[in-house]
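Our platform keeps sequence and structure together, in a single record for each protein. Such a record has a labelled line for the sequence and another for the backbone structure tokens. Nothing more is needed to write down the fold, since each code stands for a local backbone conformation. For reference, a complete record is included directly beneath this paragraph:
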Amino acid sequence: MSKDFGFGTQIRKSPFFNSTVRWGAKAFSVYNHMYIPRDFGDPEQNFWNLINNAILCDVAVERQVEITGPDAAKFTQLLTPRDLSNLSVGQCKYVIITNNEGGLLNDPVLLKLAENHFWLSLGDSDILLWAQGVAINSGLNVSIKEPDVSPLQLQGPKSIDIMKKLFGNKITKLKYYWLIQTELKGIPLVVSRTGWSTELGFELFLRDSSKGDQLWELIMEVGKEYNLKPGHTSTIRRIEGGMLSYHADADINTNPFELGLDRLINLDNDNKFIGKEALLKIRKVGVTRKQVGIIINSDPLKGPNTIFWPIIVNDEKVGHITSAVFSPRLKKNIALGMISNNYSAIGTDIKIKINESTHNGQIVKKPFYDADKSIPKKKLSV
């Protein structure tokens, strides 16, 4: 019997909820209107478990928006500035979704399961409602729904050893940002080489919610010899890797040029997508602020920030810290922040106000670790 965590019946539970409680989940937060485990003990130990061995995370909160129908490909392109013309069946892409003003609505992973069958694997946002609204007046023949799909993330250097035990050596042929449709002991799955950790890892998308406990226990049993631990997505590792957290590092009032996501914005073609005119204008005029990496010179932070900390230069607020944490590997307080162009150059000295204290800091290059993503892109061996 699982604990009552008190959010009420309006907050949905994942197919893995009872398993995570049995395996030591101590606290939950709400993400995409669902419970997500956020505490399996010491977050620093969770980080070391991730980078040294492997962790299994319940990320069923990454809800899927399923797009099917004769015009599914055309409609999916309508949602994103990223050119999808060369997207192959079985391939995944990191994409952004913008509104008519060029504001960021979400930055999901797009999975192409068939010629006219797509999933948008979401961060915390109501893109299902957005897509259904767009579809009504698009004139396109599409169906938009949330399928019975719930992902787990198996992340860390030993994730490949566990996956080989589960699926055999054929899993080593799965390339970074590609997927396969398969099953495991009768459990229907999509398996992709993706994950919100910037470590080597996989996502296992459960396609039958009645088998949540069975899948969780099966993976944990096989992972025992590799020191697999239950865990949660690591704030430390995702900030080290410069990964965005929607609503923290970006929102509807942030445009992708401010975030340095130019590579995901393809404007010089005939693609029709929402926000194109706005993004063309922003590109021409330029932006007045940028996301940057920041080192905060203070005692180790006790945990991630829960409010946006002001960035001060010459007694003037010039930006704010969006995400900050102490990295035990780098032995530094690292942060992402949004700051005025005038102070965004690498090496610029700044001050950060944390509650009643003011601390020195510097603008630095991001990401903070493994900038070329050699770890998650690693070629797998049999």
Q: What stands out?
A: The first helix runs from residue 17 to 22. Residues 91 and 375 are 19 Å apart (CA to CA). The longest strand covers residues 316-327. Residues 17-61+148-239 form a domain with the Gyrase A; domain 2 fold (CATH 3.30.1360.120).
